[in-house]
What we know:
Elements: E1 3-10, E2 15-20, H1 26-40, E3 48-52, E4 56-63, E5 66-73, H2 78-96, H3 102-107, H4 109-119, E6 120-121, E7 124-125, H5 130-202
Antiparallel strand pairs: 1-2, 1-5, 3-4, 4-5, 6-7
Helix pairs in contact: 2-4, 4-5
Amino acid sequence: MVVLATSVCTKNGKVLVSRQFVSIPRSRIEGLLAAFPKLLSGNDNQQHTFIETTSVRYLYQRFEDLFLVVITNKASNIVEDLETLRILTKVVPDYCGAILNEKAIVENGFELIFAFDEVVSLGYKESVTLEQIRTFTELDSHEEKIHEMIEKNKEREAREEAKRRMKEIEREKREREKMGITSGMSSIGSGSMGGMGSGMGGR
C-alpha cells in the first residue's frame, strides 16, 4: 500500500494538520483534501468508511465535527488501509485529548505529525503499537529538548562573550584616554619647564 497523506480537517474541509508521505506536488494533496467534503455526500454519518475515486482512496474517521482522513492510491490493500486508519484513530485522541476540537488539534499539531511519522514511513505502514508510538515520540521530544538546551547554551555563551568583549573594549578605551591625558599633561609640564629655563637663562 502507499499512503499519500494523512490529515485532520473540519467537515467543511478546513485542514488543521496534514502530513504528506510521498513526493508529489503539495497542490495535488491540497486539491484532494478540498474535494473530500463534496465526496462525503451522505456518508458522513457512518462510523468510519472509505470513498474511492478514479485515482485515490479516502479512508476517514469522524470525531464530532472533525475528520481524520487517510488518502492512499487505488492499488493499496484495503485491509491494510483500514488497519492504518484504526491505529491513527487511536493516535489522535491519545495526543489531543478526549475532547477533540480545532483548538486541541492545532495546539498538538507538531506532536501529531511526529506520531503520524511513526505510523507511516515513506508511504508504507509501520508495524507499531500505540505504546511504541508514544515511546518513540517521547524519545524524539527528549532529543529535541536536548538539542534546544545545547543551542540555548551556545547562545548564552555567545552573549556572555559579547558582553566580555564589550567590557574589554571599554576598559581599553578608558586606558587609552587616561594615557592621552597623562601624555598631554606631561607635554604641558615639559613645555612650562622649558619656558622657565629659557627665561632664567636670558637673565
